[in-house]
Design goal:
alpha/beta
């Protein structure tokens, strides 16, 4: 079994690699689109065992960054989570001004205890929640974001960003480094300010 220190080192290395890797043959490292989603009105559970109305939670007046992960993943999820962790660190002391949301795609395994341990591994701060729920509700959330996978092993790297009061979400497909994630977040805030 891999130690916590090794997990963090591996995740940091993968995040740095994703950030530093040159775009091959002029192609961007990730695809960015803007999309509208109908957020389902379901109740999920966070890492502290608290029941969360998902729709209200995402519309809580803060910018939202959302991804789909699972606690035992050793490929994509550590990179995505290292990105969230690094973003929180860069935003300190203002990390509470943004809501980071990781939704489990393995609700049968990802209990609040497992999710708490996972967030601890990535030195998460307040403002980052890991949510789980019934298989039916998780599938509904994945389908709403056009991110449904029938098997967790076939999941892919995808991150969503949303500004309060906006209809559209920014959809990032592909592994995104901390520098690019910070740039997307900054752009999101600039767009939000234009509409105020």
């Amino acid at each position: 079994m891999m130690s916590v220190k090794r997990w963090i080192t591996l995740a940091a290395a993968l995040a740095a690699l994703a950030s530093a890797a040159p775009a091959s043959e002029g192609k961007p490292k990730y695809t960015r689109t803007e999309e509208k989603y109908a957020i389902p009105d379901v109740t999920l559970v966070n890492q502290n065992g608290e029941r969360i109305n998902f729709k209200e939670y995402l519309n809580g007046g803060k910018p939202v960054l959302l991804d789909f992960i699972y606690g035992t993943c050793t490929t994509i999820c550590p990179v995505l989570s290292a990105g969230f962790s690094n973003l929180q660190r860069k935003l300190a002391p203002d990390q509470a001004k943004v809501r980071l949301v990781s939704v489990s795609i393995d609700p049968e395994y990802d209990t609040p205890e497992v999710m708490r341990a996972y967030l601890k591994r990535y030195a998460s701060k307040p403002g980052w929640d890991f949510l789980t729920g019934s298989r039916k509700d998780i599938d509904q959330v994945m389908r709403a974001f056009k991110a449904y996978v029938p098997n967790k092993m076939s999941h892919y790297p995808i991150t969503f960003l949303h500004a309060p009061g906006e209809d559209e979400w920014v959809r990032i497909y592909g592994l995104i480094g901390t520098k690019e994630l910070m740039a997307e977040y900054t752009l999101l805030l600039e767009e939000e300010e234009k509409h105020e």
